[in-house]
Amino acid sequence: SRLLVVADDCPLDMTWSNFTWAASACSSQNERAKCCRYLNAFVTVSVARYANTTGNFGVPSALNDVCLNYVTQTFLSYGIPHNATLFCGIGPKIHVSYQCQGITSGSEFLQTPNFEDVIRNCKMPLSIENSCRRCVNSSIIFLHHLIGALDNVTLNTCRDAAFVALANQGDNASAIDLASCFFSIKELQILPVIAPQPSSQQISPALAPTIVSAEAPQQLTGFPIKQHRRGTLRLALFPGIGIMVTSLAIVLVIILILLIRKKSGELKSAETTHSKTCDVFHQSHLRKYQEGSSIICQRFRYNEIKKATNNFSNIIGRGGFGTVYKAQFAYGTSAAVKRMNPVAEHHKRVFCREMELHSRLHHRHLVAFRGFCVERCERFLVYEYMENGSLKDYLHCNPLANS
Ligand SMILES: Nc1ncnc2c1ncn2[C@@H]1O[C@H](COP(=O)(O)OP(=O)(O)OP(=O)(O)O)[C@@H](O)[C@H]1O
């Protein structure tokens, strides 16, 4: 459980945030730089809040030690190991008061040349793409103009001072947003779902990297790293949602495939059933017809007729019961194929009777009946092909006949 830290005479307030992420990072040896960025951000935001009421970039020098002690105790009470605060340098590197090139207040900073560029480029929200990058870019340019090639401690102090000046341009929320951008860390106010426990792992001060690598934000050493880190952090916040959405999409696709397959199966089986019913009807009537008939005529297959009529493209006439096609069978015989129109059930019986009649009638003045086809709910009558057209055509169109 967390100890209550009494601020004594330190005017800084560090109760504005939860330190769980920082405690987690600071308990891992692999996240030392991140740990220091967290600690630096907590102190800087606290100083910015203080500057908001006083206008000063930090506590009076008389309160320096008191406040550094307060900050260290606060971190300890939130589970941040003592060796982490030593490693990050609370006091020697992380200050509670910023004196940047003699500037000690926000109003002085605002008068610094080019600072208005930084203010313009650091407008909220900084969480949207490229906005943070723009803000940090202009801050770096500004700082390099301001301090030139001075040491990293000065650079860091001025960076923190610039942060405080900027943070005081907006409200509390924008200060948090700005800190997340400036120090390349998770949004400070987001509460984690699982509170990580501080581990007993020790961070050896002997292993402390240089001030730049341990303390300076990533932005000052390279944007790509920072951009990548922010993207990763955003993703890490919602891993569960990503998995859920992906799973849902997969389930929906599977359901869709099953529905399509079921529907196409139903259609196929309906078609087959219809076709079978049709054919069973025809076959039973044909059997009766063939059983009662002494005449046996040729039965053609549907595909045979389809091929012979060139896929029913050679139309030679239309009558009251169907369309007549010219057919050329593989064995060289020409024929006229009458494709009967679809009719009601009782007409199918008529078709069979007519077939019987046709097959019995033989006369040199009658067109010879060659056969039939009953398949796929279709009926065809096949006749000898008459070369010279119909009698009607002959009587009405042939000039020799008319003369
Ligand atoms: N065996 C055939 N040889 C050549 N052409 C034919 C043959 N049978 C029919 N036709 C052509 O097809 C047309 C239609 O013939 P179809 O027998 O269907 O009708 P129809 O003789 O006019 O009378 P109905 O509709 O009463 O049968 C004919 O006018 C003819 O031009």
TrEMBL record:
One of its GO terms (molecular function) is ATP binding. SUPFAM superfamilies: Protein kinase-like (PK-like) (SSF56112). ATP binds at residue 338. Keywords: ATP-binding, Kinase, Membrane, Nucleotide-binding, Receptor, Signal, Transferase, Transmembrane, Transmembrane helix. The chain crosses the membrane at residues 236-260. InterPro entries: Kinase-like_dom_sf, Prot_kinase_dom, Protein_kinase_ATP_BS, Ser-Thr/Tyr_kinase_cat_dom, SPARK. Residues 310-403 form the Protein kinase domain. PANTHER family: OS01G0750732 PROTEIN (PTHR47989), PROTEIN KINASE DOMAIN-CONTAINING PROTEIN (PTHR47989:SF36). This is Putative receptor-like protein kinase. It comes from Dendrobium catenatum.
